[in-house]
Design goal:
Blueprint lengths: L1 E9 L6 E8 L5 E10 L4 E7 L5 E7 L12 E6 L4 E8 L5 E10 L2
Antiparallel strand pairs: 1-8, 2-7, 3-6, 3-8, 4-5, 4-7
């Protein structure tokens, strides 16, 4: 089992934007869990999809949905992934800083 960190750093003055990025987990092909640790202004949404972007693992939701703390634990996913990759589709809206990390827990099948 291993944890991967995906950093997010958006400034309040940054332009409203969407992104579509592939995240690779070396030779790990099972996504166990994900969590968000950080701050945001309710202006950042994320969807987790298969590496090709065709099948959602988690539909686009506010980053609050992934947040740890106040009795919330990691979001358990238990998904086999192809090519040791997932796709993160994000939407950022100007107006507040977003600074934190997604923590992905993965393992080898």
């Amino acid at each position: 089992m291993r944890r991967y960190v995906y950093n997010v750093d958006k400034k309040s003055a940054d332009a409203t934007t969407t992104s579509n990025e592939v995240v690779t987990f070396d030779d790990h092909d099972r996504l166990l869990a994900v969590a968000w640790v950080g701050d945001h202004g309710k202006n950042y949404e994320v969807a987790i999809k298969t590496h090709d972007g065709r099948t959602p693992i988690v539909d686009q939701v506010s980053v609050d949905y992934y947040k740890m703390g106040a009795g919330r634990e990691e979001m358990i996913l238990n998904q086999n992934i192809q090519n040791n990759q997932i796709r993160l589709e994000t939407s950022f809206e100007t107006g507040a800083d977003v600074k934190g990390q997604f923590i992905f827990t993965v393992e080898k099948n």
